[in-house]
Design goal:
binds coenzyme A, 2 helices, single chain, UDP N-Acetylglucosamine Acyltransferase, domain 1, seven-stranded parallel beta sheet, mainly beta
Length: 221
């Protein structure tokens, strides 16, 4: 048991030396894949990166590319986080569920206490496509960025497109494709996502569902 805690401590010190910051009581699974300019990965206190999560920061022009994760945030197994030239900020007490893909092209900010379901795609970029004769990859992309304010719940399988701001306390229903910004406390669903309610103002208030989604007392798997 003692040997296990010594080993755990040694792994923590080693990982801390490899990245920009690793806060006290944070855990990175030895099976987490950290790539690129690791010195631009910053993780606060008491956060967990589970087995097979993958984080990559650009090595070229890396002054604009960072991954910043707050305190007590859980990044699930097989989550992919890639900066692609932008900065990704994830706040405190967030939970990003397994198999989600989080990109940073035009910058992504996720506030505090956000719950992001499994297989969610957050992608703050659109390739340019106006000119028929120029390949997509050679046209100027849009890079407006995505902002997810505090205490937002993103359901399973949601896709969030470039330029969207999700207001504080909102819910994005499972399977939605969000193409536009939404006001605080909105409940939206569908493809493209449309407003189906406002939290606390009608029968679509989902407080009871939220009770079951407390941040799990997690360990690195
Ligand atoms: C968005 C959500 C919270 C709404 O819950 P609710 O307020 O109880 O909504 P209701 O079930 O009363 O449905 C209200 C209407 O919206 C529709 N609707 C609800 N969720 C929908 C969704 N995800 N996509 C499309 N339509 C949806 C319902 O069909 C219903 O339509 P109707 O009035 O025409 O019959 C819930 O449906 C949802 O998607 N939860 C996400 C679950 C999840 O992914 N969890 C991951 C945990 S990490």
């Amino acid at each position: 048991m003692k040997l296990k805690s010594v080993l755990k401590r040694a792994i923590w010190w080693y990982q801390r030396s490899k990245i920009g910051m690793l806060g006290k009581a944070s855990e990175i699974s030895p099976f987490t894949d950290l790539r690129g300019d690791k010195k631009n990965i910053f993780i606060g206190k008491g956060s967990t990166l589970c087995k097979y999560a993958s984080l990559e920061v650009d090595t070229i022009h890396s002054e604009n590319s960072k991954i910043i994760i707050g305190d007590k945030t859980l990044i699930g197994s097989f989550v992919i986080i890639r900066t692609y030239g932008g900065t990704i900020k994830i706040g405190d007490s967030c939970f990003i569920n397994s198999f989600s893909t989080v990109y940073g092209h035009g910058n992504l900010t996720i506030g505090n206490g956000c719950l992001i379901g499994p297989q969610v795609t957050i992608i703050p970029v659109n390739y340019g496509f106006k000119d028929q004769d120029v390949p997509f990859r050679l046209q100027t992309p849009t890079l407006k960025g995505i902002i997810i304010e505090d205490d937002v719940w993103i359901g399973a399988g949601v896709t969030i497109l470039d330029g969207c701001t999700i207001g504080k306390g909102s819910i994005v229903g499972a399977g939605a494709v969000l193409t536009k910004s939404i006001e605080p406390y909105s409940i939206v669903a569908g493809v493209p996502a449309k407003k189906i309610g406002t939290r606390g103002q009608d029968e679509h208030s989902s407080e009871s569902s939220l009770i079951h989604l407390n941040h799990p007392n997690h360990t690195v798997q």
